[in-house]
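Protocol step 6 of 9: fold each sequence in the batch and record its structure tokens directly after the sequence line. For illustration, a two-sequence batch is reproduced in full.

Sequence one:
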Amino acid sequence: MAAKGKDRQKFNILIVGQNGRLQYEAVLFAASLRQSDPGFDGRLIVAEPQPGEKWARDPRIGNPEVRALLKQLGAEIVPFESRAFGSAYPHGNKIEGLSALPEGEPFVFFDTDTLITGKLSEVPFDFDRPAASMRREGSWPEIELYGPGYGEIWKSLYDRFGLAYQATLDLSQPDEYWQRYLYFNAGWFFYRCPRAFGERFLAYATGIRDDPPGPLVCQSLDPWLDQVALPLAIHSLGGGRPGPELAGLDGEVSCHWRVLSLLYAREDDHVVDVLEAVTAPNKIKKVIKEYEPFKRMIYQGKGRKVRAMFDRADLPPREQMLRNQIKKANLWMR
């Protein structure tokens, strides 16, 4: 996993921070980065959407203690304007937030609900070949009886933007099986220039939203729009599926935990150890315990109760089964 010192590339990290849950998740991310990779020498930029006509309420980080703590942890809070998305599709922040980064400098984007658990600075990124997370399920498209199949739906998207569809297929997977088609989790992605990537990502996302190809007529794009447009952007810039050298980004180096209850239920002991270590210092605790799920799951032991419910060596085969059991025990908290 580790790159040789002479091959290390300096890069910036982007996460999105705004009022509500994400501001507390941003603190967890920043604290885990500083503990797990103290040698990281790039910039950690927290992109903050600004109020405007696209937002029903002020989206800025509302807790001044969070702002102060993020700065103590070495994060820079940088504003950006929401011109295409906002309240109607907050997932669009990861697209428009790329404008907060300096042009021409390599970047890695992470969803805020991610822990850094190893030396991110030693991951051998090839910033000329963008890629994204493969920790995903076959969540889109949802195939309707007598409707278009996976191939017709995905091909219509590549055709819309003049891209080579056939080159994206994983021919080791059977026809009409979802893993044959280029599909990512948008929890992390990277490229050599945030401006070029963001412009392409935005053009594809708004084009699909405003004028979807005919085969998408029965498909929901909320909340999937970012994950539908992402493979198109990555392919158009010469990228594709990540190679084995990036396996740590969904393993020993980072964990996209998404829901705290799921983290405690299924992640490795090391992930839980990192979570509880970075949230132990009083300066962290006094701020993030204001968010009720963090208070109950981390500090009041509810997370450990969830963990005791499951055998990590024999987890249910589908995430929905995990969710159902946790909810039945009234321990489902993000």
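Sequence two, same batch, same settings:
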Amino acid sequence: MTRPLDGITVVSLEHAIAAPFCTRQLADLGARVIKVERPGAGDFARAYDTRVRGQASHFVWTNRSKESLTLDLKQPNALAVLRDLLKDADVLVQNLAPGAAARMGLSFDTLSPTHPELIVCDISGYGEDGPYRDKKAYDLLIQSEAGLLSITGTPDAPSKAGNSMADIAAGMYAYSNILSALLLRGKTGQGSHIDVSMLEALGEWMSYPLYYAFEGAPPPPRTAASHASIYPYGPFVAGDGGTVMLGLQNEREWKVFCEVVLRDGSLATDARFNTNDLRNTHRAELLQLIVGMFANMSTAEVENRLDEAQIANARMNDMAGVWAHPQLKARQRWQTVGSPAGDIPALLPPGRNSHYHYRMDAVPAVGEHTEAILHELGLDELAVKALRKTQAI
């Protein structure tokens, strides 16, 4: 079995989420990913929490299938090791503080003359130029700058997304840009410089709200778990206290919803509700009609009627519900990977390919592969001991 990135070596100066998520996906496809960490503590995301048998939830999610190499890059002898490692690398990824990699001589402009096939991917909050270039950026701050907070939450209070959306967006675009750069190198023989901005990545995901507010128009209102411009679309409470999520997309579905689910076909042509725009305008009135009908039904009965009408619906799962989701189980999406604390479950990456299986190797301990990598570079035991004595590794 051959994976798409077998034979590709990625060196990553990474921490937190954006770069580790990018490189884990490269590892999923077979790339050898060498994660450079600080001696001792390692990636600071290792200490975010202790929820996974003493390990951090963020870290185990984004760091399987990697090798951990500890280097104190402030020491010249450790930086020399990194430079030696880059001689045979295909990709360098970094999301250090703005300007840190360049100060160490690790910019694309510095490396490219001697490593013309090397792809260098820099991930930052705001990009390598512009007035925000040197600002620190964390996920919540970028969610705020990109406008996500302004459209998420209730009418009374904005809310951040419950996941690291800016980091995930940046990691996804870094991943796809690296794949495209590898394809381009196959045609030209030349490496590329990739400059990924968290603001620009999340800004792309804000496209619908941006256009909704085109030329000064009012932005989408904050509507909690409901859709801001389509109705009915969101959570509705059943008579037993359960919550059903449902969504209508067109007038045909609205007609069927009235006839089969609400058992009142006359509502389909009611002058208050006979277009989506009108339903959205009169959503408070329509909400009362819907919950009034649902009050006499259990959650299961509501779901059965929605299924009968072929109206999209879902349960509002919590995390325990996702762990036990029957669809994920039926499709065998859970696998087991190793970790310093023993085997843990991990979801397979989205997308099944008929020609290969994803790489699902262990989450590394801090510096677990340091000595093996140093020996691979030709350093003998005395040289390794010297590096360890000065805490360069």
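Proceed to step 7 once all outputs are recorded. Observation for sequence two: The chain has a mean pLDDT of 95.
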